[in-house]
UniProtKB/TrEMBL annotation:
Record PANTHER family: MOLYBDOPTERIN BINDING DOMAIN PROTEIN (AFU_ORTHOLOGUE AFUA_5G11210)
Xref: InterPro entries: MoaB/Mog-like_dom_sf, MoaB/Mog_dom
Originating organism: Penicilliopsis zonata CBS 506.65
Domain annotation MoaB/Mog: ranges: 55-235
Any GO BP annotation: flavin-containing compound metabolic process
Superkingdom to which the source organism belongs: Eukaryota
Name assigned to this protein: MoaB/Mog domain-containing protein
Molecular function in Gene Ontology: FAD diphosphatase activity
Length: 328
């Protein structure tokens, strides 16, 4: 193991690569090849295209086992909504190589923008980078800028007082796992690892043109997505990122009473990209009807009609018209 680390660390200081296989000869100097790479044959990735749809893949045994509550998919859903991106799918899967490979291939093929969350830490069960690399036949490669930023911006744990960045150790091996990223030699290196915040060493690895690999820690996931917004805006249908508009209409009627009208309305406005929703509020006296779409003017034009047909009122909050609780 120490021999491997010595070789890797020496690669970090070399101005150019040497003694690499011809298939890896196009790897730029800012990347160092892993000593035991996966197959070097890379699949052709799609060019950057307009983003209409998105998907979110939450990876982690701890989520499926109930140990951790997933908040990242909720944050991502709101992020997509605010930008006008149609989020089509959210999945939660285990830290299982075959599950990750199947899911990421399928999502990358079907959706314009894919985000994964979790499984990129230093421990044995953090297998997201390796599994996604295998999904697209890409090697894992040590990314020098990420490693250098890690050394500057991260601090050794207090329980590792003797840790040294230049001394081979099990701790250093674990840290290197977090900066070995899938690499496609047929694509520009700068498009495959994005640093979006100056005070964060964690890169957003981009694979197959549309798979964005993010950490599972909520505060990191949220900050990276927030800083990624300027990169994504030019690829949206509306580069200004006006987002999706939602109207809430509070009604005292039960769902069964408004269902016939809402069914007719949904069919009539579907061609305008408007979705009609009905949501019961169990145990309360009022339910909610929603109108959702990107055409704010058209959505607002429907409000008087809907208010009349459901005997309701346009509100800003679902509980706005709820009667005050009776005092005992």
């Amino acid at each position: 193991m120490f021999n491997r680390l010595n070789l890797v660390l020496r690669q970090l200081s070399r101005p150019s690569l040497a003694h690499v296989s011809p298939s890896a000869s196009s790897i730029p100097s800012l990347w160092s090849p892993r000593l035991t790479p996966l197959a070097m044959t890379s699949s052709a990735a799609p060019t950057a295209k307009t983003i209409h749809t998105a998907a979110c893949l939450i990876i982690g045994d701890e989520v499926l086992g109930g140990k951790t509550v997933d908040t990242n998919s909720t944050f991502f859903a709101k992020w997509c909504f605010s930008l006008g991106i149609e989020l089509k799918r959210i999945e939660v899967i285990a830290d299982d190589e075959s599950e990750i490979i199947e899911a990421v291939r399928r999502m990358s093929d079907r959706y314009d923008f894919v985000v994964t969350s979790g499984g990129i830490g230093p421990t044995h069960d953090d297998i997201t980078y390796e599994s996604i690399g295998k999904a697209f036949n890409l090697p894992l490669v040590l990314h020098k800028p990420a490693f250098e930023r890690m050394k500057v911006l991260s601090k050794p744990h207090p329980m590792q007082p003797n840790f040294d960045w230049e001394t081979p150790s099990p701790g250093l091996t674990a840290k290197l796992r977090m900066v070995e990223l899938p690499f496609d030699s047929s694509l520009p290196a700068e498009d495959q690892a994005l640093f979006v915040a100056e005070d964060m060493w964690v890169p957003i690895a981009v694979v197959n043109g549309n798979v964005h690999i993010l950490p599972g820690v909520p505060r990191l996931f949220e900050r990276l997505l927030a800083h990624l917004k300027p990169v994504i805006l030019p690829r949206l249908t509306d580069p200004e990122g006006k987002g999706i508009y939602r109207v809430l209409i509070s009604t005292p009627l039960p769902e069964s009473a408004v269902a016939p009208y809402l069914t007719e309305l949904a069919g009539r406005v579907a061609s305008h990209g408007i979705k009609v929703g009905s949501y019961p509020r169990w145990g309360l006296k009022r339910n909610t009807v929603t109108l959702v779409g990107t055409d704010q003017v058209y959505v607002q034009s429907l409000i008087p009609e809907v208010e009349m047909n459901v005997e309701g009122k346009w509100v800003q909050r679902e509980d706005e018209l709820d009667p005050p609780e009776e005092s005992n």
